[in-house]
């Protein structure tokens, strides 16, 4: 049997994709399907760390957040990612995958704090580590948290699993004629202001020479194919 192309990866899961067809929140069959994809890869022996976004929950509270101080709203967004992380870890537990949630914000009664050596230990033990609460700082995103944690744990690649199947010349949900790149450099993605990931995340990965692959979490089997080195999504490179 062919071996996985990677030993340790950082998977950025879209919070918005967790809604499925719902208006907000966590759609049960969607999270179960995502976790089945994750379990398939974890069972290959790939060391897997995950950062999950918060758009599915934060979107639901957004009307109430109108006019709020930006930093306060951002802390609410980070707490939304803690809820998603707990739901994800529990869904993994239900299919026999051991996961540990580590939070960048101290809420010790709920999840353990992020401590880098402990995270590395869990990965070496074959546990899936879910990094919650983003970077712990307002004015950032979970894309940047994925780049940051990916660099910290020595991941070989950041895999951005989202609702589209790669990086396009424009937002494919708005521009019908957008063309998908199979590869693109960080500098070109930043210069062209491609919004699939924020520029801070792109710049951090570029500086750390940490490649990113953007792929569809909606497409069945795409995550495993990518891990096996098959052609999936868009590679963003130095
Ligand atoms: N050039 C582009 N190529 C591909 N997608 C793009 C581009 N520009 C904008 N997008 C949009 O970016 C979205 C993915 O990024 P976004 O940060 O919004 O979501 P996410 O990270 O999947 O969700 P969350 O923030 O909840 O984790 C895509 O669904 C797509 O509509
Ligand atoms: O490091 C971070 C990460 C996230 N936030 C806030 O949380 C929401 C949800 O994250 P998404 O990446 O958009 O899914 C984000 O909009 C920020 O408000 C943060 O402040 N710092």
UniProtKB/TrEMBL annotation:
<feature type="binding site">
    <location>
        <begin position="12"/>
        <end position="15"/>
    </location>
    <ligand>
        <name>ATP</name>
    </ligand>
</feature>
<dbReference type="Pfam" id="PF00696">
    <property type="entry name" value="AA_kinase"/>
</dbReference>
<keyword id="KW-0665">Pyrimidine biosynthesis</keyword>
<feature type="binding site">
    <location>
        <position position="54"/>
    </location>
    <ligand>
        <name>UMP</name>
    </ligand>
</feature>
<dbReference type="InterPro" id="IPR036393">
    <property type="entry name" value="AceGlu_kinase-like_sf"/>
</dbReference>
<feature type="binding site">
    <location>
        <position position="74"/>
    </location>
    <ligand>
        <name>UMP</name>
    </ligand>
</feature>
<feature type="binding site">
    <location>
        <position position="171"/>
    </location>
    <ligand>
        <name>ATP</name>
    </ligand>
</feature>
<feature type="binding site">
    <location>
        <position position="168"/>
    </location>
    <ligand>
        <name>ATP</name>
    </ligand>
</feature>
<keyword id="KW-0547">Nucleotide-binding</keyword>
<protein>
    <recommendedName>
        <fullName>Uridylate kinase</fullName>
        <ecNumber>2.7.4.22</ecNumber>
    </recommendedName>
</protein>
<keyword id="KW-0067">ATP-binding</keyword>
<dbReference type="InterPro" id="IPR001048">
    <property type="entry name" value="Asp/Glu/Uridylate_kinase"/>
</dbReference>
<dbReference type="GO" id="GO:0044210">
    <property type="term" value="P:'de novo' CTP biosynthetic process"/>
</dbReference>
<feature type="binding site">
    <location>
        <position position="162"/>
    </location>
    <ligand>
        <name>ATP</name>
    </ligand>
</feature>
<comment type="subunit">
    <text>Homohexamer.</text>
</comment>
<feature type="binding site">
    <location>
        <begin position="135"/>
        <end position="142"/>
    </location>
    <ligand>
        <name>UMP</name>
    </ligand>
</feature>
<comment type="similarity">
    <text>Belongs to the UMP kinase family.</text>
</comment>
<feature type="domain" description="Aspartate/glutamate/uridylate kinase">
    <location>
        <begin position="7"/>
        <end position="216"/>
    </location>
</feature>
<dbReference type="GO" id="GO:0033862">
    <property type="term" value="F:UMP kinase activity"/>
</dbReference>
<comment type="function">
    <text>Catalyzes the reversible phosphorylation of UMP to UDP.</text>
</comment>
<dbReference type="GO" id="GO:0006225">
    <property type="term" value="P:UDP biosynthetic process"/>
</dbReference>
<keyword id="KW-0808">Transferase</keyword>
<dbReference type="InterPro" id="IPR011817">
    <property type="entry name" value="Uridylate_kinase"/>
</dbReference>
<dbReference type="GO" id="GO:0005524">
    <property type="term" value="F:ATP binding"/>
</dbReference>
<dbReference type="InterPro" id="IPR015963">
    <property type="entry name" value="Uridylate_kinase_bac"/>
</dbReference>
<comment type="pathway">
    <text>Pyrimidine metabolism; CTP biosynthesis via de novo pathway; UDP from UMP (UMPK route): step 1/1.</text>
</comment>
<keyword id="KW-0963">Cytoplasm</keyword>
<feature type="binding site">
    <location>
        <position position="59"/>
    </location>
    <ligand>
        <name>ATP</name>
    </ligand>
</feature>
<dbReference type="GO" id="GO:0005829">
    <property type="term" value="C:cytosol"/>
</dbReference>
<keyword id="KW-0418">Kinase</keyword>
<feature type="binding site">
    <location>
        <position position="55"/>
    </location>
    <ligand>
        <name>ATP</name>
    </ligand>
</feature>
């Amino acid at each position: 049997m062919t071996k996985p192309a990677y030993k340790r990866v950082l998977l950025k899961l879209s919070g918005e994709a967790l809604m499925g067809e719902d208006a907000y929140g966590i759609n049960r069959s969607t999270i179960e399907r995502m976790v089945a994809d994750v379990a398939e890869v974890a069972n290959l022996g790939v060391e897997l760390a995950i950062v999950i976004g918060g758009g599915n929950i934060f979107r639901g509270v957004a009307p109430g957040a109108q006019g709020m101080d930006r930093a306060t709203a951002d802390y609410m967004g980070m707490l939304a990612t803690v809820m998603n992380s707990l739901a994800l870890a529990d869904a993994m537990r239900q299919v026999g995958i051991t996961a540990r949630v580590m939070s960048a914000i101290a809420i010790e009664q709920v999840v353990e704090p992020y401590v880098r050596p402990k995270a590395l230990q869990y990965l070496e033990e074959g546990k899936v580590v879910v990094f919650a609460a983003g970077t712990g700082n307002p004015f950032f995103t979970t894309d940047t948290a994925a780049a940051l944690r990916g660099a910290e744990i020595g991941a070989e690649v950041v895999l951005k699993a989202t609702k589209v199947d790669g990086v396009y010349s424009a937002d494919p949900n708005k521009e019908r004629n957008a063309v998908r790149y199979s590869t693109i450099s960080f500098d070109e993605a930043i210069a062209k202001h491609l919004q699939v990931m924020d520029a801070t995340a792109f710049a951090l990965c570029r500086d750390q020479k940490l490649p990113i692959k953007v792929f569809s979490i909606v497409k069945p089997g795409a995550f495993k194919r990518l891990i096996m080195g098959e052609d999936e999504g868009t590679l963003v490179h130095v």
